[in-house]
Amino acid sequence: MDNYIYSLEFKVRDYECDLQGVVNNSVYQNYLEHTRHEFLLSIGHDFAELAKQNIMPMVYRIEIDYKSPLVSGDKFVSVINVSKEGNLKVIFHQDIYRKSDNKLIVKSKVIAVVITNGRPSKPDFFLEPIVDKLI
Prior knowledge:
The chain is α+β, with helices and mostly antiparallel strands. The protein has helices at residues 25-42, 47-52, 124-127, and strands at residues 6-11, 55-66, 75-85, 89-98, 104-116, 119-121. 21% of the residues lie in helices and 41% in strands.
């Protein structure tokens, strides 16, 4: 887990689990989204402030591979790497690892675009603080 540019720790809450006793598949998207928003804050971009300026980073596509389940009380780390695809797409490579054994829980690829004043725009300003860390 050392090769990521950002990490955020969580703990599974009881109500995030389904009848099978594991975290519901849809909850992982919440974890991933919260991690992206906190990552943006860490590089100087407040998601809410961007929206007020009509700058909307938006998810275009998500690919998630569920490798192993989390259960109530598990502590885990959500990590990020970032790359760029073409002129308009930002790729968030996001993984989730259980802390107790560093087991890979989720492997995901979140493709985002930036919409400015209703039109697709280059994400360069958005990536400027991390340009030297892009994969």
